[in-house]
Write a structure and sequence with these properties.
Four copies of one chain form a homotetramer. By secondary structure, chain A is an alpha/beta fold. Chain A has helices at 4-11, 42-56, 74-84, 111-131, 152-169, 195-205, 224-233, 259-271, 299-319, 322-330, 334-346, 350-359, 366-373, 375-382, and strands spanning 16-19, 61-65, 87-92, 135-138, 143-144, 175-179, 189-190, 209-214, 237-242, 287-290. The first copy, chain A, has one domain (13-382): TIM Barrel, CATH 3.20.20.150. Chain A has an eight-stranded parallel β-barrel, surrounded by six helices. In chain A, strands 5-7 form a two-stranded antiparallel ribbon. In chain A, helix 2 (42-56) crosses helix 9 (299-319) and helix 10 packs antiparallel against helix 11. The longest helix of chain A is centred in the N-terminal third of the chain and has 21 residues, at 111-131. Chains in contact: A-B, A-C, A-D, B-C, B-D, C-D. Chains A, B, C, D: It is an enzyme of class 5 (isomerase).
Chain lengths: 392, 392, 392, 392
């Protein structure tokens, strides 16, 4: 079995982008619980995100959501983030909270509303130009609730047209990343419900269009690592939205529901060449992001736990003895190959990672160090008044 | 095959209770769309519900949700409803929108919070006494999001204790009805996730405690008509919350996603003696209710469509030639028995029902009659200002 | 609403191919029940299939499965079929019942076994040349049962290579049709698990390679009509394997589990131009086939019921008032559009279809006519001795 | 965190029963692959099972399946097993492979067939008397494939009657254990589909009737540990059939698909008092059994891997710091409680267990020791000719 020392260098530079919205309040359709200290501004969300990076060294950038994170001066925001030790990352568009989009956005049958949704993406690209963001991530809430309500074919054609117009504006060093989702908020059909649809749509656009895989957006039982493998093989895996689910799009902490699935996913990323620095030919690596909702748990430690889970599972995936695995696979040794795989999963990497962190000037136990820092008490005292940020 | 004339009398007196909250705004965690004319008060919700009954003759009562439908004077509300032609029905408790209930209500580890939740149910029983409602319906949002977060065994024991205290307050002519739900808003465990749990809990209480079956609260693939059969057999099916789903608890219009499933469910209700007036021995019939969210469609016609769907499917279920079915079943004639069953499902009962309605002074086409009535324009004009009612 | 007379001409020429194996015994891993009269030869299977066509006029061709339907002289078999009134259709390959294929066929890591699987497909193409079949249908059982057992990426690359070699042999008027399946017989990963994979693989081959959609091969909750729409839009829907499911790949009679889903699927076929005679530009229409297992019901009437279900649902789908639907959709009239759709579904087309059949010299009630024919008693008496055909 | 030394004594005496049928060939409806050395007799199956116990010390008994394991002299079989170092355990009835049971066994509408099925269980009890087995396990394949095919209510009543007759024959020290299963081999309804049905049926029988929970027999997404908790709370969890699944009833090696789920299940067994020796009041502990199919992997090492997985996960479950967990739960510390739970799951217990085994005269690595033993080569050479045992 590969040992930790051999894989330690590969852990250098691992970066997991945090979503700004994870630091605001979130909840279900039944209730959103507020908590003391929740940010009232984009800046406060960035300050909180910076805490995660400070204690883990794993989260150097923060994704923005427009219009939730609209500010007047992005250069200033960029500077503010830099002072805090993080950068601004992916820009997420939002076409699901305007009354006009009740029956669709990029797929809307009304050309005026559809153009409005396209224009919103142009604005997002403007933001990207100002922030230096690489990726425009599009998640569409478009869909319908009742059979017959919508012409699903016409919508798909309009989607293709809308995406083409947006893609035309994408800069040479920028990417359009199209997320798919099985269902919700639409309950009969969703316009980008599966990887096949996202793949077909982005393939029609060009090299700078990629698929975003959110680990919570699949039908029950779906083999997600297979999709990871396939998209890497097809050269179209742009990014991950990591989270966990037991049922639907539960948006729980990544690795908390099925840690072994996370292991298998990251193993296929490694196997398929999607992990590590940019390839020599300039192609972009796969971007790791979180997309989670901390409905009942603390937000900053919740994000910390998440990036640590990804790091721990990456270490385990790297520990797989690939030569032994290949040999057992070639020999048709089912139990042998499975055991090589499980040996890495069952290896306890936590002590090694604590030492690894200390060597790099990070706390051995980031969760404890953060808890001891007093930051939470500080923001609870300071952030009084104002409106806590949330999804709306 | 049984003909319509033979079953027409059995359609008399069918009653489907409407949820007051269906007339307020609802939506997903992403967005709640408001609509012109939405009620700003309990009275306006009741007025809208009365429209459904006026045009269909199927919906003589309205369920209340406490605290959403809290008023100072229930006698007055009862009178108001009577003037509109409807009565007040089931009282639904709500323990999911108070900050205290973040980690549970009837199951909470903190005795003070648990007592608060019990007390809330006592208040609901007071409301029932004032309104003359028969059923106290309990749907619990209690659960947890992460493995380890909660002691699921301790919670079950506390639930039993809480329910026993509430049951003690239930009057001789009242019932406690316990709803189960697979998941949401909790995403790891739910304290009453399946019919087995609800059945075990209400069985421990006594004869006046029953199970509520919400058609959208099951795991994918669950054979719901089997549960209907079983609960009727065990004498514990208290009521239905009707709605439709494609994925999770989508709360779509009953009969819109899988009409054949609705047919099979109602057939088992009929087969098991759960349809029709109270039995001579005084046992209660099964209460039919709707529990739906009209996120994107019009609310009043949405409720109208729903009760009509239930009526149409009841007619089809009653049309099954039970003798021919039994004969084919006894003979092991798989295709023959299936065809007897399908013959009833495929029968178009709409024209017969239109005539049936006209004979009773109801419009042949309730949807058209309502649309022509001008009521919607009227409420849009009248209901300006104020706060539209919704789930919060 | 469109009336039956208007759509009657569109029902002309509808053809649903029958699988030869549906007339042999089938079952589950627990038990295969034999029945009197089951065919002992390919010829007897064809004779039985011809009965279905004789009484319904809907099933003019029979699909073969190699090696189950291996004969020495295909010209003779073709002639035999013609005498019985049917033709030989799609050729299905089989790479799941040879010990060599325990760990894969077209994906096998051992080049010798992989070549054997490729060679088998060459033989199938030889059969097609002899029978005049248009389609080579490939369903792969390839997959693995345990994480780590197989290198899923390597297998995908080998699959692409194997398919390319087979595709090279396909004649100008022939097609390669690649079926996908969610799971079974492999229980961890399947090499062609979803439409996206099948689409990506056939797109790499060329214009004569298409996707086969088996209605039972999806994850729970999958919106199948969306996939139908998408594949038609992408020009890659080659054929259907029709059947029904409640749980997994149950292979029940098409239309028996969720008739409304079948309606929605056929509506999208019509909407997307996949129904009717070959297009003027010579492109092939979508082939309709059955792929079912009559484990407990009679086989010949089971197939009859199936093709009648498809015909009845096609009639309903054609009855949708497309203009009214489009108008309601454009107006954002959710309930109105849904009702237009449901009006067609709820229309009872059975009497019209009985008349339609009689006009064409077919029995009004094919099920009854077949039952009265005495054919079943005849084959039970005649087919004594020999080995009943089944999957093995 | 609890350390291994503290929990080591609790691992003493852990016993996991092996199914005799796991050593015969098994497969899917598509293909059963044979393997050299497969047993041709009950004795050879027991000899193979004894190997598992010899190397792991975890599997002291073997479950029988009647009629697969019918012999003339059970006293002699018992003696043979004892010589090999194992005992005979649970007796499993089989009512799914006789033509008479095509439409049901204990639920059959034909009283003669139903009595035949009851009589079969009487014979099984006779076998139990001869073998000294404690448990009669009943898994029913009864169900139907098409809506309308069967009267599901009548079947449930007949099931109750049949079970009562069987229960009457059960001895004072014997138990009747009723297994439930979501679906398969029936594809529309199953007569004992869920824990609620099994619980209701066994509750009506008496104290010696219990529920058997097979970990692969649930709907997608079901929280199995919740059911474990509930059945223990209700005093009705009789036994486990352990295995793993990704999709349906895949019958894979326990712990291979979702190790974290196995951890959660065993934790609830421990939490609910279901683990360990019989209680002082004489109530029986929960029986652990395997029920798996080694379709593609080696059988003896497959069983070995399985019992080791159960042991390793039991050790992890015992390592949970229950005091720290309770404290965090009581404090509403979601992340803290979750981390206490995960800390135990992520602990690598393999080296400690190897040492534990060596202290007890067992090989540190049972898999390696067995592989080195030459037993497989021996049986491959010796077991030539005869008919390999399988499910049929």
């Amino acid at each position: 079995m590969t040992d930790f020392a051999a894989i330690a260098p590969l852990l250098e530079g691992q970066a997991i982008e945090l979503p700004s919205w994870a630091f605001g309040n979130s909840g279900t359709r039944f209730k959103v619980f507020g908590t003391p200290g929740t940010p009232r501004s984009v800046e406060e969300k960035i300050a909180d995100a910076a805490q995660v990076h400070q204690y883990t060294g794993l989260a150097p950038s923060v994704a923005l959501h427009i219009p939730w994170d609209l500010v007047d001066d992005y250069a200033k925001l960029r500077e503010y983030a830099a002072e805090k030790g993080v950068s601004l990352g992916t820009v997420n568009s939002n076409t699901f909270q305007d009354d006009d989009y009740k029956f669709g956005a990029l797929t809307h049958v009304d050309e005026k509303i559809r153009q409005k949704a396209i224009d919103h993406h142009f604005e997002c690209i403007d933001v990207m130009d100002a922030t230096g963001s690489q990726d425009l991530k599009i998640w569409l809430a478009d869909g319908s609730n009742y059979p017959g309500q919508a012409d699903i074919r016409g919508r798909q054609d309009r989607l293709a047209d809308s995406l083409a117009k947006i893609y035309d504006r994408i800069g040479d060093d920028q990417r359009l990343v199209l997320e798919y989702k099985f269902f919700e908020p639409a309950f009969y059909h969703t316009d980008v419900p599966d990887w096949g649809t996202s793949y077909a749509q982005v393939s029609a656009l060009g090299d700078k269009a990629m698929v975003c895989l959110d680990t919570g957006h699949h039908a029950p039982g779906t083999n997600i690592e297979f999709i990871v493998m396939q998209l890497l093989r097809l050269g179209k895996l742009g990014s991950f939205d990591f989270n966990s689910r037991f049922y639907a799009d539960d948006d729980l902490i990544v690795g908390s529901a099925d840690p072994f699935q996370l292991f298998r996913i990251i193993f296929e990323v490694v196997r398929g060449g999607g992990y590590g620095p940019a390839n020599p030919d300039g192609t972009s690596p796969v971007a790791f992001m979180l997309d989670q909702c901390h409905n009942v748990e603390d937000k900053i430690p919740g994000q910390m736990r998440s990036v640590l889970n990804v790091q721990e599972m990456t270490a385990r995936a790297l520990l797989v003895d690939r030569d032994a695995l290949s040999a057992a696979q070639a020999a048709g040794d089912v139990l042998g190959a499975h055991q090589v795989f499980m040996d890495a999963f069952y290896t306890d990497v936590r002590a090694d990672l604590a030492a690894w962190r200390e060597e790099r000037g990070l706390p051995a136990d980031p969760m404890k160090a953060y808890a001891a820092s007093g930051y939470q008490a500080e923001i609870e005292a300071a952030r009084v008044g104002g409106t806590q940020m949330s999804w709306t």
